Amino acid sequence: MTDLIVRKLTFAFEQHDVPFLWNPENPAFSAMANAVSFLAIGFEKMIVKMIMQAKPLITDPEVAEEADAFMRQEGQHSTAHRQHVRGLIRNYPGLQETLDEVVGEFDKLTAETPLKYRLAYTADLEATFTSVFKLMLDNEAVLFRPGDDRVASLFIWHFVEEVEHRSSALIIFDSIVGSDLYRMRVAPSIFRHVLRMIRIANIGFNKHVPLEERKIDALSMSATYRAQHRLGKLLPRFALPDQGPMPRAFDDLPLGEQLLALRGVIRSQLPKHKPAHEKTPALADVWFQRYQDGYDVTRWYTAEATGAEAN
Hints:
Number of helices: 13
Low-confidence stretches: 307-311
Strand content: under 5%
Number of strands: 0
Oligomer: single chain
Largest sheet: none
Distance between the termini: 31 Å
């Protein structure tokens, strides 16, 4: 029997303005998280269609139950991220074009690739999340607390649930495909696709959000893009347009923790990897307990400030 809980949360994005620069102390992380919202909508739409297609092939009742709960959790994430992105589009209507492009690319993936590839895509990407999101959640005081509470609470919820269902995608993949060799073989193309989706989102941010409001070049998280800029300084004929300062989202985080997360990402792609064995963020346990206790997790910081019980 699955341990996953499907939680339906609403973050009041319709009630107030949704800022692009939702964490003014870290514009690069603000842009990165916004890009995650755009990617999540397309990715999670793909997951729902994939699970519906995969269900007839699942013979183990426990795997079938896991797949259903996984799909329903991802569906809730998609709904919440759509609310967030709609808020951004209200302020920057051109971002609808960006959203359509990202979702269109995932729709194309659904239409043009076999089921086993999309199962591998989901398993490979989801396997990285525990290490990456642990880095973020372990540094919530820097990355989330200074920001808009609705946006911060959305991402904290999403990331702790990704930790909760960290094994689900691999369980489903193994039950239907069961080939570590195949999963490793297609991993390079999968991560190229992920990076291309993030790039599409960030190009849209540079195009549709004025620099005075985003504060940074949204493409600055790309190592390749940063290298191109360095080349342009040495060889002016290769110079790229100046889109603003180029800080990185994790510049203020301890280097050791960043390297630990990177090792976790690499380990997640190796044969016989078991996400359940990964060390999880302490904040996840706090979040689950508070949710169980009735704490308003949609206002993770301001509910605490108004006197709700919190540790």
